Amino acid sequence: MRTSWQRQLAPVVTGALVSLSLAVLTTAPAQAATTAAHPFPTHVTYQVGVMPSASQASRDAAVEKQYDSWKATYLVHGCASNEYYVSSKGDADATNNGPVSEGQGYGMNIVPLMAGYDSNAQAEFNGLWQLVKDHQDQYGMMQWQLDGKTCKYYSGGTPDGATDGDLDIGYGLILADKQWGGYTADAKTWLADFYAHNVAPDGHLKCEDDGPNTDTRPSDHMLDHLRAFAAYDTAHDWNKVVTRTEAVINEFTSAYSATGGLLSDFVVNAGTTSPQPAPANYQESQPDNIVGYNSIRVPWHLGTDALVNGSSTAATSYSTAKKESACLKSESGGNPQKVYPHTKLNCTPYSTSDQAEEAGDSVGPAAMAAGDQAWTDAIWNQLATNPFGDGYFGETIKTLVYVVMAGDYWSPASAGTSANDFSLSDSPSNGSVAAGSSVSVGVSTAVTSGAAQSVTLSASGVPSGASASFSPASVTAGSGSTLTITTSASTPAGSYPVTVTGSAASGSHSAAYTLTVTGSGGGSCTSAQLLADPGFESGATAAPWVQTSGVGSAPVNNDTADEPAHGGSWTAWLNGAGKADTDTLAQTVTLPAGCGTATLSYWLHVDTTENTTSATPDTLKVQLLNSAGTVLATLAGYSNLNHNTGYTQHTANLAAYAGQTVTLKFTGTETDANGGTTDFVLDDTALNVSP
Questions:
Q1: How far apart are CA 469 and CA 84, in angstroms?
Q2: Could you tell me the maximum CA-CA distance found in the chain, to the nearest angstrom?
Q3: CB 60 within 8 Å of CB 41
């Protein structure tokens, strides 16, 4: 969503701000009447790690100095008389140094944390919030990019929101409510809208409110925010979001960065148990499949969660932050200036020609959580400098990191008396068992607010001929249990969504578990390729493929002069007509029971004349449907931004659907919104199974 790649490619703005009828704050409006409940400095004893060696008084003074500088440079009174915004000055993120929702969220976190020191903080916060309310998209989230002169939506297409900014805005409203009171209704309305549009069905965070349910951005994984949401807003199952976010982190890092704990800027297949790095230019014109200007923030977020919530409640954040700290210390040789904004997942620099202060600054909370005193001190010392002349992005992140590292970052989840509540998770979140056998699952609970309470466990959704039992069946929040699912020889093969539920006086929480039952002994599966006419060489009739076209042009064709085939003479060419169109291609197939491996593969060439680096008017979805036509899973999603010079092979794991009859469906949609056209060309498909 954000064009953060511009920080790498665009020159730093060193001149004066564009002349506007707006004033950068040097003096603030009249003092707010409400007294701050948690005035700065609010000294916090963190749950784990070390503090910088500097004294508490000098740490507080450093934060105040940085805040004064940040406020004078970036906090702008405009566009309306009752509005404030955080300027993107120096980073070209919006025209006329305007605001982006990411920065607005940062400001709505910084200002309430500095209340008490800044006597005008509540008036400034109200102005920041007013601008958000005046610029909401169709889902009630902030329009992600505004012109600094007119405050009109600046990006292309229908106004939409970005998850990172909207997360911080929600967290800022809770901070304000705990600091001054009076924001409860606004906060809960915002969180309800966010939950409805930014949380995927399985619980992972989407990249934007109008985006697909298949991807996520790790820099949005602000687990301390999500835990605060869970304590504050019990009307929505935020613990489900916490659990799935932690699972994505663990599943991704174990597969792609087991030693370093690094996460790429964007992650696809987030709705499966096999999330993976996005393609190189998935949403932004930088290598989105490695650490970039998005994911440099992950050590800050995970380190902060570990510091505030401890190594038990925040076990995933704690373990991952320690790995990231060690990884980036090794990359830089202990010099924060040599933590590079683009880093490979194996902890080596992608490029050393691009440097930015926020890359090293963001490691500070992770270094603290890891207990590395020397590394913590080195990063703390860098905070007092701006070695590369960074603008809004680096200086704003620095301000928040300063608050954390100074020991002044208080959590609204623990501010005041909280109602009793708990979280529930299972590990692993999926498993396979042969009919007639059993499988065990670890079930964990944790206290998220208030005091520990008794939690009764149950499971629903087990298949016929199977039973579920817990040992023990009731636990005190903070303790664990073991779920055992026992199948019989008559239990049908297939994939079953099982819901694990914990019930207590405060309410109920649930976790999802996917059970795959294979035939007893697995003897019903033999190695085979199941798709008929996988390369479309049977010609235009295409049977048993079923094809449709919104403009009357059948996808399967042999126009290899315009679009060469990957193999043979025929392809399936979806869209590309230069007009609004939806094309589909589908085939129904039965996956034998007992197959431990079922891999879909296909070759795809995306060609486009769309002239955009952010809008996605043309898309292709790869989905799996059941016999009733209900979507079981969206296996992948592509758009005009995935254009390439030739074919690329893609794969998906379908083993969880063994024993079922499913329909594989490709759906290409072209809106013709931008005047360009996109071709999605498929060839040489396969669905290989084996025991």
A1: 56
A2: 78
A3: yes
Q: What are phi and psi of 106, to 5 degrees?
A: -55, -45
The closest of 557, 588, 117, 52 to 336, measured between CA atoms, is 52
Dist. CA 647–CA 571, nearest whole Å: 12
* Residue 46 CA: distances (Å) to CA of 50, 288, 364, 373: 9, 33, 14, 15
Distance, in Å, from the CA atom of 83 to the CA atom of 95, rounded to the nearest integer, reads 18
Question: What is the C-alpha to C-alpha distance for residues 540 and 640, in angstroms, rounded to an integer?
Answer: 26
- Whether the per-residue pLDDT at 424 is higher than 60: the answer is yes
pLDDT at 550: 87
Query: With helix as H, strand as E and coil as C, how does 100-121 read?
Result: EHHHHHHHHHHHHHCECCECCH
**Cβ neighbours of 634 (radius 10 Å):** 18
Sign of CA dihedral 273, 279, 281, 282: negative
Residue position matching structure tokens 């511009």: 6
Is residue 11's pLDDT more than 60? Answer: no
Q: What is the DSSP letter of 218?
A: G
Sequence-separated (6 or more) residues with CB below 8 Å from residue 457: 443, 470, 473, 474, 475, 481, 483, 500, 501, 502, 503
Of 46, 144, 127, give the one whose Cα is nearest residue 80.
127
Query: To the nearest whole number, what is the mean pLDDT of the chain?
Result: 89
CB 180 within 8 A of CB 34: yes
pTM: 0.61
DSSP state of 314: T
Question: The tokens of 343 are what?
Answer: 């880093």
DSSP string, 289-311: TSB-TTGGGHHHHHHHHHHHHHH
C-alpha distances in angstroms, 148 versus 68, 123, 614, 670? Answer: 22, 20, 20, 32
Going by C-alpha positions, the residue among 174, 179, 172, 178 that lies closest to residue 39 is 179
Q: How far apart are CA 651 and CA 536, in angstroms?
A: 18
pLDDT digits (tens, 9 = 90+) for 187-239: 999 999 999 999 999 999 999 999 999 999 999 999 999 999 999 999 999 99
Which pLDDT score, from 0 to 100, does residue 116 have?
Answer: 94
Q: Which pLDDT does position 433 carry in this prediction? A: 83
DSSP 8-class letter at 337: G
pLDDT digits (tens, 9 = 90+) for 27-62: 333 334 478 999 999 999 999 999 999 999 999 999
pLDDT at 390 over 60: yes
Distance separating alpha carbons of residues 337 and 615, to the nearest angstrom:
34
The helix/strand/coil state of 470 is strand
CA 108, 109, 112, 117 torsion-angle sign: negative
pLDDT in tens, 294-323: 999 999 999 999 999 999 999 999 999 999
Residues, the chain = 691
Q: Are strands 215-216 and 528-529 parallel, antiparallel or unpaired?
A: unpaired
* Residue 492 pLDDT > 60: yes
Q: What is the DSSP string of 614-667?
A: S---EEEEEEEE-TTS-EEEEEEEEEGGG--SS-EEEEEE-GGGTT-EEEEEEE
d(CA 503, CA 513): 17
- How confident is the model at residue 428, as a pLDDT? 84
Strands 546-549 and 75-77: unpaired
How would you class 185 by CB atoms within 10 Å of its CB: exposed for 0-12, middle for 13-18, buried for 19 or more? Answer: exposed
Q: Is the pLDDT of residue 499 over 70?
A: yes
How far is Cα of residue 40 from the mean position of the Cα atoms in its chain? 31
Residue 232 to residues 34, 120, 204, 235, 585, Cα–Cα distance (Å): 21, 26, 19, 9, 46
